[in-house]
Design a protein that fits this description.
It is a single chain. 2% of the residues lie in helices and 47% in strands. The protein has one helix and 15 strands, in the order E-E-E-H-E-E-E-E-E-E-E-E-E-E-E-E. Strands 4-15-6-11-12-13-8-9 form an eight-stranded antiparallel β-sheet, with no helix packed on it. With 241 residues, the protein is mostly beta strands. A hairpin with a 5-residue loop joins strand 1 and strand 2. It has a single domain, classed as Jelly Rolls.
């Protein structure tokens, strides 16, 4: 085997490629790392491109997995978070994940609402169920119960998905909401949500909410608000293939 030693190997012209090995050969690069900004397969298909600082673009769909991050919003002392673009027929399921939702007002509740006109207006009729498990820090109470006061029966009121949040500096709510086939013009739009929050009276509450937007129009926007006051937190929207 011959050995070629050089500090730099360049093409004869800037528009020419350098080819290592021939068809059928195996080329081994014995190095700790291989530094390139664009990686392609044998067919010339781009797998990913980096800007040189670790930020990727043009990532091949086969590498992304089934859960695709579409957008994310981190807010401070804001009244509402809206997702008014990106909810369409591309995905059958949209998942909203929220974390560190901290209420500015004690005993406020975290709510969701849908829109059929890209967020121009909200208030889609819905029917839902609501049950929860609860346990106090003092261990004085623990229960599993249905909450008839928090479900919605054929009404346009926003759906509470985390109730009676504390406004303490360390209090917050976390969870996720799944919205199914929002672009269907044949069926109602089902959703379910699971949340856990630090309640105002020093309790942990796990809530399970499900139901449907009673419309055959496409749901193309979703809004998150508090029943009173503003909130901090991060909400991200994903598409599920």
């Amino acid at each position: 085997m011959s050995t070629v030693k050089a500090n730099t190997v360049l093409p004869s012209e800037v528009t020419h490629d350098i080819t290592l090995g021939a068809s059928g050969d195996t080329t081994t690069v014995a190095a700790d790392d291989l530094r390139v900004n664009t990686v392609k397969d044998k067919g010339g298909n781009t797998l990913w491109t980096s800007d040189g600082s670790g930020n990727l673009s043009s990532v091949n769909d086969s590498l992304k997995g089934n859960l695709i991050l579409l957008s994310s919003q981190t807010v401070t002392n804001q009244a509402a978070v809206e997702f008014k673009t990106g909810i369409d027929s591309t995905y059958d399921i949209y998942i909203f994940k929220f974390s560190e939702i901290n209420a500015a007002t004690d005993e406020a509740s975290f709510r969701i609402e849908g829109s059929t006109n890209a967020g121009v207006g909200y208030g889609v009729t819905k029917t839902t169920t609501w049950f929860y498990a609860l346990h106090t820090e003092s261990d004085s109470s623990a229960l599993l119960s249905y909450s008839a006061g928090l479900d919605v029966a054929n009404a346009t009121t926003p759906q509470i998905i985390a109730s009676t949040l504390g406004d303490d500096a360390d209090a917050c709510a976390v969870g996720e909401l799944h919205l199914f086939n929002p672009s269907s013009t044949t069926y109602v739009k089902h959703f379910y949500s699971t949340t856990n929050n630090y309640r105002s009276d020093d309790e942990t509450q796990e809530a399970f909410i499900s139901g449907y937007f009673d419309t055959t129009s496409a749901i193309n926007a979703v809004q998150f608000t508090m029943s009173s006051g503003n909130f901090d937190g991060t909400i991200s929207m994903y598409g599920l293939l």
